[in-house]
């Protein structure tokens, strides 16, 4: 089939490349000419394992990129909206980019003959597809949804670093459509995928995405809450969770306590669901607690630090790990950010190291010291805070011996070194 993919960011570029791999013909649309040129040259706009290879394979063949909406909509059967949905000031979802994309698709639909389906893949709060995107499409096209064109919602569940693998081998595919014709066409795209397709309404599909992420975030905040209690009782929370996770109704995944969750999805999506709940007159106390635990968790690290060394003003504190998780250079909502901000507020000197994310963090904290090796960041430091679960930190041992303080506060239960003054965040 012929698909246009609107937006060449993280979700859009992975969706385009993976649908090409599944045998479809793809036209990527982006308002950024540079991005389209990059894609046409086979260069991925973001780093994601396996994405470069797929673009190399298909760019200029069954995958092309353009800034021309009219051409893309006219040449294809389906358009996927894969643009960003950032948080507004109050945490609720900002739909201005989705609106602009829908208006441009609508304007192109006005000139197109024949049926076309518009699919929202961007993460949007329940009711957005039917009550927000659909009317924009109708207004801009002068046509009627369900008659002249179809509308559907098809959420993604991709993990950063594993997005291509997750797209090609999904646990679930959810297609929420306004009518059978739209749903059938979207489902047809996934015919070769070995995965059952769940057919729902658009609002249910939107909700499934938010509940998925909110439940995973809840598991982590729950594990962190239990970890904090266990630590006070002298009980090892990892031993507790290992046994608890053996219950097949619970699963052992996402019960690792530590500095909390970051990334582009969990914090944003939980906050957007909170915003939506409040907008319809419900006070979501559990979801608000999930965020509250996550915001408190990194600051427990600096509390431990102060208990151990007193006032950190003027002291050198090494921060190991800046990315929001391992195997990525993404620092969005990284738990290292509130920790570094607090260290600076307290007047500490920060020496930071991350194998991939240094350049990104420089934009947020341009004045702290960045080192190319963990051992250099640790040299002469009074204490060290471990923020990201990078594998290479597991083997650190002698590197700690060059510290002045040899105090290691571990936010990810990853340090095994023996001859240091070690304290885990919640164990
Ligand atoms: C997540 C979802 O997994 C994915 O399905 C969704 O589409 C987007 O959001 P991602 O943001 O890439 O993916 O990261 P993920 O691997 O899920 O980790 C999120 C955060 O939780 C990281 O900061 C990680 O360090 C933290 N985490 C994870 C924990 O603190 N404890 C755990 O047990 C697991």
UniProtKB/TrEMBL annotation:
Q: In which pathway does it act?
A: Nucleotide-sugar biosynthesis; UDP-alpha-D-glucuronate biosynthesis; UDP-alpha-D-glucuronate from UDP-alpha-D-glucose: step 1/1
Give the Enzyme Commission number: 1.1.1.22
- The record places domain UDP-glucose/GDP-mannose dehydrogenase C-terminal at 318-417
GO MF term (any one):
NAD binding
Q: Name one Pfam family in it.
A: UDPG_MGDP_dh
Q: Which InterPro entries does the entry mention?
A: 6-PGluconate_DH-like_C_sf (IPR008927), NAD(P)-bd_dom_sf (IPR036291), UDP-Glc/GDP-Man (IPR017476), UDP-Glc/GDP-Man_DH_C (IPR014027), UDP-Glc/GDP-Man_DH_C_sf (IPR036220), UDP-Glc/GDP-Man_DH_dimer (IPR014026), UDP-Glc/GDP-Man_DH_N (IPR001732), UDPglc_DH_bac (IPR028357)
- Catalytic residue list: 265 (nucleophile)
Query: Which residues hold NAD(+)?
Result: 30, 35, 85, 123, 160, 268, 332
Q: Which UniProt keywords apply?
A: NAD, Oxidoreductase
- What is the superkingdom listed in this entry's lineage? Archaea
Q: What's an example Gene Ontology biological process for this entry?
A: UDP-glucuronate biosynthetic process
Q: Which SMART domains match?
A: UDPG_MGDP_dh_C (SM00984)
Q: What does the entry list as the binding residues for substrate? A: 157-160, 209, 254-258, 262, 325
> Reaction catalysed?
UDP-alpha-D-glucose + 2 NAD(+) + H2O = UDP-alpha-D-glucuronate + 2 NADH + 3 H(+)
Q: Which family does it belong to?
A: Belongs to the UDP-glucose/GDP-mannose dehydrogenase family.
The entry's protein name is UDP-glucose 6-dehydrogenase
